[in-house]
Amino acid sequence: MILVVLAATTARGASFYVATDGRPENDGALRNGIEDYEYLATLERLGKAEETEKIVSPLAQSWFAWEKGPAAYKEARAKLADMIVATQKASSAKTVQATSPLRVHPTNPYYFQDNQGKGVILIGDYTWGTFSDIDYDYAAMFDTLKANGLNFARVWVFWGNEIGLGDRINVVSFLRTGPGNANDGRPKYDLTQFNPTFFERLRALCTAARERGIYLQLTLFDAWMLKHSHLWKLHAYHRDNNINGVDGDPCNTGTGTDGQHGFCSLDNPKVLEAQKAYICRVVDAVNEFDHILFEIANENFYNEQWELRLCDFIHDYEKTRPKQHLVMPKDLLNHSSVVQTWDVQAIHTTLIEKRQLRQPLIFDTDWTITQNDYEVRKAMWTAVLSGGHFNYMDDSLQIGSEHKGDFQGSRRANLHRQIGHLAAFMRQMRFWEMQPDDALVKAGNAFAMVSTKEPAAYLVYLPNGGEVMVDLSPDKETFEVEWFRPVEGTTEKAAPVQGGAWRSLQTPFGGDAVLHLKTHKPKEGN
After folding, report:
1. Does one domain contain both 275 and 148?
2. Would you say residue 465 lies in a domain?
């Protein structure tokens, strides 16, 4: 039996594996003693670092002085376990004030609010391997987003296997200990032993994003790959690939898509418990971060109740932790449930219809890739001026032989600048005090928003430019008129226009345009 003690982990970081004959062996954190580290990390999160220190310090005073008898380590482990149980019970008995960092805006539920009380609109750019590709430089990618003024990225956390698409190699959350080999020829996974490298990288990624002001949508599982038999064959939850008897395909369908008994189901206790253990470890690793939200799975078309149950599980688990985060699809829709089209009228109509849900709506382009910048530009402006958020799935950011991208997304640099123009424009607006209103325009293909507070402001997007009739009858003041060029990111002033009636305005240049009308005097009654 091998035991580990990390004496005063936060102060000295010494780790010793002590065999039954009392001889120490320093061996990193890749042995069976990893659970002792989890004990200490859990107690530190529970605020019991000082009490823990008193238990473990006598066991290892230094590299040259340690307790020789294994019984002392067993006794210390038992004390640590008892302290965890007692502390968690006490915490559960208390009402913990929710401190959700990124939360739904309290007065306009279609937007977010940060922990400083400021309104947040998410406008981002992302690719598949940001975290999971072991050689992906996520800091360089985040620098690209920051340079373009973007604040959002979707991040796949766990694909399920080490061998990804093309020449991609994924970092996985479990250690590969064997005995026996998996279908890829490497040792089988032990789903009870977590890979420290995975969680160190995850925390480093979240830290890098926080430093650059970028919010992350952490996608915990990928369900897209479950339908591909050659990928499912390599999955950690495939019966041939783990030593724990976890079988994500008990009905032998050859994939993981069985929504009744398979990976995405509520009728497979071993799979579900393994998923929950992994989720707990992820939540513990990132709970401190203000700028994240969770997504249970990418493209789960097999069992919605499985996803919702895991949303509830995260909410319950975080009740006794410092911060509580939003979880998709419970708190807001997954991307595949919002809208998936480049047709601007369909985007607008769908987002308006789904406002009945009274939650943020993120138009995420993860269904197809277009190389036409104008198509993306028109879609994103339409989505945002229909009260939504925007996130672009970008193959130009994906390195490797399949997509041949780079961390700067160089081949779509023009598009990145145009997304940045949208983000910069909206940062100048009090968008959390605005709402879309189709009644504002009656001529021309245009989508409009109006402020609900003052001073009065109108935003109108014309995907094809031209003329638009705008209803200014509620506001009798004189409006300043500005035309914004979405391609160049520049503004042109035009002659003021008098409110109090319907007014016709004509774009002064060709192509799509944004009209911004504003007064400086509050409406009567405000």
Report:
1. yes
2. yes
CATH label of the domain that carries residue 472: 2.60.40.1180
Q: Predicted confidence band at 77 (pLDDT cuts at 50, 70, 90)?
A: confident
Residue ending a domain, choose from 427, 462, 484: 427
Q: Which amino acid is at 164?
A: G
* Residue 217 within a domain: yes
Tell me how far apart the alpha carbons of residues 324 and 99 are, in angstroms, rounded to a whole number: 6
Q: How many CB atoms lie within 10 A of CB 293?
A: 23
Answer yes or no: pTM beyond 0.90: no
Beta bridge partners of 222: 298
Read off the pLDDT of each residue in 34-60 and give the average, rounded to a whole number. 71
User: Is there a single domain that holds both residue 388 and residue 244?
Assistant: yes
Average pLDDT on 273-279 reads 98
Does a structural domain hold residue 444? yes
Q: Domain of 453? A: 437-518
Task: Please report, for the chain, how many H helices and E strands are present, in that order.
Answer: 11, 26
One domain, residues 82 and 37: yes
Beta strands (DSSP E) in 211-360 are 215-222, 292-298, 327-328
User: Tokens 């919605």 correspond to what residue?
Assistant: 304
Query: In Å, how far from its chain's centre is CA 418?
Result: 23
Whole-number Å distance between alpha carbons of 403 and 371: 13
Cα 90 to Cα 55, 83, 87, distances in angstroms? 20, 11, 5
B/e letters for 15-36, b = 16+ CB within 10 Å, e = fewer, are bbbbeeeeebeeeebebbbbeb
